[in-house]
Batch of 4 targets.
Target 1
Amino acid sequence: MPKASPRHPLLPNLDEKLVSEMLAKVGATSVEELFSDIPKGVRLKRSLRVPDGSSEYLVRRDVQTRLASNRTPPGSLCFLGGGVWPHYIPAVVESIMSRNEFYTAYTPYQAEVSQGMLQALFEYQSLMCDLLGMEACNSSMYDWASAAGEAVRMAARVTGRKKALVGANVSPRRRAVIQTYVDPMGVELETVRFDRSTGALDSSDLRRRVSGEVACLYLENPNYFGVIEDEAEDLSALVASAGGLTVVGVDPISLSLVREPGSYGADVVVGEGQPLGIPMNYGGPHLGIFAVKDMKLARSMPGRLIGMTTPVADPTQRAFAMVLQAREQHIRRESATSNVCTNQSLMAVAAASYLSLLGKEGFRRLGETVIANSHYAAAKLSKVNGVRSPHFSGSFFKEFAVSYSSARASSVHRRMAKLGVLAGYPAERSLGLGAEAGLYCVTEVHTLADIDRLVSALEASI
């Protein structure tokens, strides 16, 4: 037996002889040299503070004690949104997701994927195309932000242009991810202003910025403030007239009542599938939606696409297969159009189950409940002294901004959390609202009593 390193006797790869052999293979003289590309300023300059081992019971009790300090639903009322939203998940969705044939097939590739999983993903794609008004949908991306980044990259590739327009009223975090995705391509992001009264994009500012150099416009509908872009069709037409593409980011629940993007000129639709039967999960894993209107774009679309065909041996039967994988990193390596070589298959199965169970009528009723609850809450909050609710005059769905005349948004947010109400996520200064404001989200899970408690918490926190 080789002599184990004193640092950890149960990890054989820490054996000094093995470490030396591995370093020699890669041409490094030390572990320090191996990681020399990591800046010294971000390295940990001490040993890990890992306590000695303990019994399973004591470890479990310690973890549970630490977790008890978290403020999470249902122990705390949650009115937070901004990309992750509280929605009800029917028990049957969790039951389907937990079936072994789905749950254990983490990221199936062609060689080992089952017909059952392929059919489930095909059904997801079909449902999403119906919902979005698009022709092809992949299955799937990591989240909304990565899907948006890939969409802008794709627009730059297919148009051969190096400028992208992004609404100033999109999520700052999604914009930052887009920036990270397009920087290596030399694509410039240019911001389109939004109307300070309505919260919607400023069409006159877009008109000034659209040119033959623009690859695409990325807008969100509803946008980060929850405001619906009523002029989305005109904005899309304006970009199309200059030869650019329109990329629309959506909350899929809004499509229960809001027009589908394919009907107002969207070329690419991205979004977050988390509301479709997926838990908030502390921010992930979630489901990135990515769909295109023109099948010509499908070849450039990242992620997997499942197709339906018939077996040669028996043309009366259906068969499912992965198609158009040649654009992915695991097939073409550095020549690929995308580095997506895994996906969120299980999350896509959850979304397909959720949409199938609700059906068209149930989905519409869900949207009606959400919009009724959110508008009721906004009206109730408007009666609190020192509060403007909603901050914008534009029509909104599920989320809305609330501004404070004499209180800091971060302080209001913290005080309400101490009262057991998670709400009023502070709006970033980069959004330029000109006032202290917080974002509120109200869905079908909130009762009238919950909203009354929210109003009381805000009154006590202003």
Target 2
Amino acid sequence: MLVVGILAVPPLLRAIPPRYAARWLPEPLLAIASPQQEVPILPTVALPLDAGSLLGEPTALVAPEVVVVLPTQTAAPAGANSTPEPTAVPPTATPLPEPTATAVPIPASARLEGIQHIFQDWNNCGPATLAMTLSYFDLFVTQSDTAAVMKPNPEDRNVSPAEMAAYVNEQTPYQALSRVNGRLDILKQFVANGIPVIVEIGIDPPGEFRWMGWYGHYLLVVAYDDVNQQFFVYDSWFGTSDVPGQNADREGRNLTYAEVEAYWPQFNRNYIAAFRPEQAELVAQIVGADMDDATMWDHSLAQAQADAAADPENAFFWFNLGTSLNAHDEYERASTAFDQARAIGLPWRMLWYQFGPYEAYYEVGRYDDVILLADVTLKDRPYFEESFYYKGLALAATGQTAAAEDNLEKAASFNPNFDPAVVALAELNRDQ
């Protein structure tokens, strides 16, 4: 009987919903309860690939015109004795040309005050980080409030930057802007001018959480310090320390400029700025030419080409290249870039957060690849409306109508706010 009981433990533990297991179980039992991942990376493709042709004539890197505005009184200096001086832009893999406009000096350090730190519930870093951000404006909502709109199903593993910006724009009196291909100086300009900004980065959990592997994570930037070359962030998981679940310092957890340069590109350097309506013109000045989508994606493509050329073994750079080529409707070239990223090796959670390979492969008729990647992502974790959606599209394209309808229905029911699935399902039913 004892043997039977021991053998029954793993299945019983795995029957516990992950959000409850994470809250109640100690690490050894949590490791058993978590769905087992057979491989650490997404399915790969065979080399050699002709990916080098994507970099043969890279788009020239042109720095957008820089308009740095004087900081408002909203943000206070992070160090009382710091002397204002021009903000230094850390070097990138390929140095950018000098800005075409003379920058107005901003402080060497600045801080946003009055933000309420919030620890996240299970897989709730997006809703928790957004609730923290809104507290800066004295708008106090809970992560349950934000999650109810952005991820109605608590098992949903991801909230996209676009969904977070939409929440601010549609549910609050404030405004938000989601962009990619950010730079460190843009983050500093936002903070210096009293504008909270969220970044999404990759993390490799430390210590006892290392077994969990690579994750995507949102952070709220609350301060920067040029002297020590670091940002301070409010982290819904780590708190303000380097140990998950602890608040060691209300100043925030420090994240060096070098760490941001290393991990931010794993999400194409995306950021979400939240601001008061009267700050819209200021935000446009800070973002500059990248306020225009086409210009932003041109810059993103140039940066991705430069990054991949400088470090061709970095899978994330090739992934960013694929994402940028998708934005230019160059799906064949995007597919090659995503193939190269997969050949090098992408974390198995990659398609929890970014969905470019689905789009590129679907557009070029590689439906089997779409279905394979969706099946791997959904295995034991049927929590991603985007994966159900693209799998449904691929199945419909191969004539498997019943299976396509089933997957599109799963996408629409899992997240009723996910309009693409609702539209695709209606079109499928109309064509039958």
Target 3
Amino acid sequence: MNEINVSTSEKDRDIRHDWTAEQALELFALPFADLIHRAQTLHRRYFDPNTVQMASLLSVKTGGCPEDCAYCPQAAQYDTGVDAAKLMDVETVLAEAKAAKDAGATRYCMGAAWRSPKDRDMDAICAMIEGVRGMGMEACATLGMLTPAQAQRLQDAGLDYYNHNLDTSESFYSEIITTRTYADRLDTLQAVRDAGIKVCCGGILGMGEAARDRAEMLVTLAGLSPHPESVPINMLVQVEGTPLEGREELDPLDFVRTIAVAKIMMPASTVRLSAGREEMSDELQALCFLAGAGSIFVGPKLLTTANPEQDKDANLFRRLGIHGEDIGPVSTDTL
């Protein structure tokens, strides 16, 4: 995070945990130009507006997940053409990580299609984390639900961030997932926070949720203390064979509004422009950066869905005058 001349009094005023759904909806209802100006002004207090962090994501264990997340092509019960695979070996993962670093990534994220990791898999996962940190990149993982003991093991290995999205509001959650509860999600987030790992937590738009659901999701995120350091905002990628295939597409400007409201409510957090960029125009992505998005995933694939090619991202960055963030050397004191 590149903090820019933010006084303590400004921080105290900006960072709130008492937002209400009504207040969030009022932000959503602002004239577009006013909303973007407010979000961009706050973004500039905490970040360089012309710098975007580039992260890379690898599915280290694909398919066969017992959960029934309606958006996910990796759920075992849906016929999506995604075959179940075993956990990748450590050497292969680290070779992929080096290639990502050589392509400009400063954070490497590893995802596994599990309800929760088995203890027998933790040695390999920890070795992957140690290897990524040893390359000078931040390490992030998303492995499903964690026990406090598992979270502590990941922290001991040097994990920087743990991703565990809320996906949507608590009231809409059961329309999307029935195999675990909203409380289960929050319990894992607490275990991660208690272990001293930074939290990466956001949601997915375009699943059929109402505007109030988006507002309530952001209120829940902003109610966490501290705020999640990373807040990914995903556009649903509709995959054939999943229950959400055929949902009405979200108005792109509603997506931009959500980025902006997330930035206003959590100004010191990195709002991450995540899944769905493959279908987004350059103009839509530019509006997202203007609204306060400060990070993207680079590389040809996000777990199992497509992502823009590196040359396309580089061309867009050049045209916008944006450059990738260099996070500098990562301490290996915990390794």
Target 4
Amino acid sequence: MSDWWEAAAAWHATHAHVARALLAGSLVSIVCGVMGCFIVLRRMAFLGDALAHAMLAGVVIGYLLMKWLFGLEAHAPAMLVGALIAGLATVGLVGLVSRQSRVKEDAAIGIMYTGIFALGGLIASLFSHYIHIDLLHFVTGNLLAVELADLWMMAAVAAVVLAAVILGFRSLQLTSFDPVMAASLGVPVAALDYVLTTCTSLVVVSGVHIVGVILVVGLLITPAATALLICRRLSAMLWAAALFGLTSFLFGYAVSEWLNVAPGSAIVVAGTLQFAAVWAVAPEHGLAARWLARRRAVPQTIREDILGCMHRDGREWVPWKSLTERLECGATMLRRAGEALAAGHWVECSREGLRLTDLGRDEALRLRRAHRLWETYLERLGTPVSDLHRRADQLEHVNDERAVDYLDDKLGHPLVDPHGAEIPVDGKRIVAGALVRVSLLREGHQAIVRQLGPAAATLALSVGQPIRVGPRRPDPITWTIDLADGSVVALDHRQADDLLVELRD
């Protein structure tokens, strides 16, 4: 045991910079992953980039103040405070510009962060004889140059940020997913936004030492985005993002040592490759899962074509072979479509074939109604009769009942299609006890008058009066109503639409 301890002490004495680099990188990558979850969920990735660039002005000003006032150079706490103030000033200016001008928030972020970043570069140039900051390493990172003071600063930042997340987890969770509800419940949304911005600024400042100002956004966003691919709950996402941040750092650092390249770039590249790998194999949102889902999916048109084909067939049980011959799809796809329809309780499935349920029969009638209405509409547009069925077969799959109802109304609620086949009624609304317009009813329907609209007010009818729908008259289309005393009332389209009745059995 003593030999192992002596060997570890000897390694630390000769590789102290490596130990500090590993510890600092682990702390920063974990806390960046945790904070990145809230940044990703709130869609604030661009704001994180703005904070990373704007902190240059704060670092330079903090350095100058400590140099002029106390004669201290590269004072880490002062530069941290300066960067934090610069970040908060950036957020405040972005909010001011977006609220008080026509410029949108994304443009305001671009204006402010580039302006403040340029201001930092300008001040650094003007006072270059006072400032001894390695701007190259500030931009690209200098992991192996982490000093003990920097390490303590990173540990303090990690402790503060993680404590803020733990203590305010519930409120941060609510404001991230539904800020309107959070405000209605009395949660201080604006205050939490400033807390989140402050924590993000602290994390960005600490991350600059590892990967530099350019790549710190990758360390902040990529692990969180990777965790988002596999997690459904925020609590699990936080743990996963911290783990992905740590593994990307360790793998990237190992690669940088092996290839003798800049650690910052290798760390961010490792995180990106990790994201790509998880994206490829994620169980629900990954590329492979989506590809398999598309292969297993059954197009809506095929399912609806099966229902229509079964309804036209008329037999109680329609054999698989008969459906395969009539429909343009393979036997495997047909089997999958039948299973999907059975899962939706539209059909009953057996080895021999399929049978429509009441729900499936209603859906088949709805499709037939839509098909024949589209045929009627296309015929009035001048479409050749030979093309009516093919084109209507494509349009009938438009699953918007309002569009079909609008079409029915514009056509004057026709009774038959151009081929002379009857157009089915709307089976969902034309049921006993329903309140419907007379224009939707057919000959033989019995009902009770419930409401007379403005156009129907002049008719010789009264509320509560029983009626029977008679035949329609063409040219112009006219609805007729038979009354109990033997008289007949004629209605035009507007009057038939304005007369609401309660349908009887």
